[in-house]
Amino acid sequence: MSSPPLHRDCLVGANPIIWSNDDFNELAGDVPLDTILREMRAAGFAGTELGHAYPRTPAALAGPLSRHHLRLISGWHSTYLASRDLAGEEASFREHLTLLKTLGARVAIVAECTRCIHGTRDATLGSGATPIPQLTAAEWPRFIAGLKHLAAIAAAEETKIVYHHHMGTVVQSEADLERLLADVPEISLVLDPGHLAFAGIDPVAVARRHAARIAHVHLKSVRPAIAERVRREGWSFCRAVTEGVFTIPGDGCVDFPKIFRLLADADYRGWLVVEAEEDPVKVPALPKAKAAREYVRQHAGV
Question: Which of 229, 245, 231 has the alpha carbon at shortest distance from 278?
């Protein structure tokens, strides 16, 4: 054991993007839900986040989860608070929140997707003709006010909003992440060391600085040589994923034992979710998932 064990209330889950990519259908986008859930359970995971193959009503999703003895952890929700009507954003969020809460999830992952480019196959990540998406001076306060509004709705339902910083979105840089966390103390943080490292941010430093704000953790690492090529050659997010910029804990450049130590010191009690998207044809999902689960068991003690 290279770090103290995390609290026994911590559970380890997986995101179905290991098996079937949500953004790019050519990356095993046709894998059936039953295959995903069966292999996820076989790999030793206790829960799952949502993916594109998952039904989005509680009645339709409860059965598959129960058959495979998996809990619903959470699921990505795209917001457009800076660019769309708040009433519509609220209605969409409430529908998502109902699904989560009905099936027992207590964290709601959100990411602002106004002008996002991560799903655009030929959009370079912050170089050439496609710079990192940015909110205007007028849009930022609207975004912040909207997040505060959704956070209040979530709190009334005994659920936390956890914000997901993400490559190709308006919260990609360290400066924008710090501004967001300062401006909206009502929300918590998804610690995603893979996206932090890919963006050139030290994930250990972020975990240390914001340990008390972390309410959800995604576990993936980054292959630094590929990340450098992405920056130097102006690759898209799609190409970066396909070429293997992300990898599982225990591989790549992220120092997970240090992160686990910081989480243990902060008495973290949430989910640890493996979410290392690669091309499942090049890198079969089940062996990778099993290796990641064993790594977490050995280094986090859960």
Answer: 245
